[in-house]
Give the backbone structure.
Amino acid sequence: MPAEAQPVAAPSLPERETVLHSWCVQSEWNAPTIVGGEGARLLTADGRSILDMSSLAECSNLGHQHPRVIAAIRAQAEKLCFVTNAWGAEPRAELAALLLERSGFTGGRVFFTLGGTDANEHAVKFARQASGKPRGWIITRDRSYHGASYAAMALSGDARTAAQSDPEAFHVLHVPPPYAYRCPFGTDTEAACRPCSWSRTPAPTASWRPTVSGRRCAVRRTPPAST
């Protein structure tokens, strides 16, 4: 009998041709492929061992392939991989209790999200709901990053995404950070920067009008006094 035909594996396309990567020019992306890790080091597909100086964007502060982390993931996967958030889950309840205990937030509750952008958007929702101001103004800093959704880009004082977002539409105000080393008002010390910033901040008015001040042209916006 003729031998049974073996399936032919499809040719593997390079990742730069199949994946859209964030925060980069797509045609210039050429990062190494990571195939493993151990402790503070990552292993690349071309056989190198490199030191991970950022803990993979601060998400792996326990190190890569920590035995206890692997064991915990394996144990939970063997028991239950997923449950909808409408139902209860023992690991979620245990984590919430630990977070409340460690934070000292007695009587509080934990709201779990999928990431930083999601968490920031929900924080704004909670603040507006708790204050009774569904369109209340949110104050954030220039040169800050709060995520990549449209609302989070409006919260961010990030020059890379400023042209794609509309802070006013999301009721967001940006103010200069308290950074005396490069004071936006041209002062050299914290003591001199503080009164300068107050004196150059316009009083609340009923109009929405940007004012430009200082050597760095820092924008200070004032919401309506009734908000």
In short: The chain has six helices and seven strands. Strands lie at 34-38, 41-44, 49-51, 138-141, 172-175, 211-213, 218-220.
